[in-house]
Amino acid sequence: MKKKLLISLTLFLLLSTYKTQKSFLITRFNIAKIEVVNNSILSKEDIKKDLLFLYEKNLFFLNTLDIEKILIKKSFIESFSIKKIYPNKVKIKIFEKKPIAVLNMKKKKFFISKNIELINYLDLEIFQNLPNVFGNKNDFKKFYVNLNKINFPVEIIKNYYLYQSGRWDIEIYENKIVKLPSKNYIKSLKNFINLDKEKNFDKYKIIDYRINNQLILK
Predict the structure, then answer these.
(1) Could you tell me the strand order of the sheet in which 33-37 lies?
(2) Between the N and C ends of the chain, which has fewer C-beta atoms within 10 Å?
(3) Residue-range definition of the domain harbouring residue 75
């Protein structure tokens, strides 16, 4: 009888110790730190705030899809990588979209990325000098692609204006306005690039290409 009792006590102690050790090992890998790197526009604190649910989750069993669902909602994020760092840290590397202009559409503002994607607008000082686009995304995309095809110096453009007729005006440095025709405007843009190199061209504020085969300077 005493022998059986001793065996039972021994087994109880062994199992209790095993459960305690197992619990300690699982707890040891609970997430205690979230590191966000490579961001320059979005706030680390805001990203971490949205990921508070990760704390105390076990790193071994973490489903990164839970993180992805949160990050893809942020329109400024182009892509990201998620790395588990044992024993208890998650490292998230952010790659952000770079705005090239501000789209003004139906009394709302959006940033436009280099790939002509809309980004939720934020009032940020670093983007205060971006050109404004008064039009729509699809027409601007076609126009911007054509500008780049002919190596037009887009950095000199302050504002883009699209009219109902489908033609564009661009406002450049020193408040000069280039008025383009609705058709075959690429020819006009190429002409402007050459004209802009002329010294006596500086005095004109309006460069009007709207009439076919004519250039009006004012």
Answers:
(1) 33-37, 89-96, 77-85
(2) N
(3) 13-96
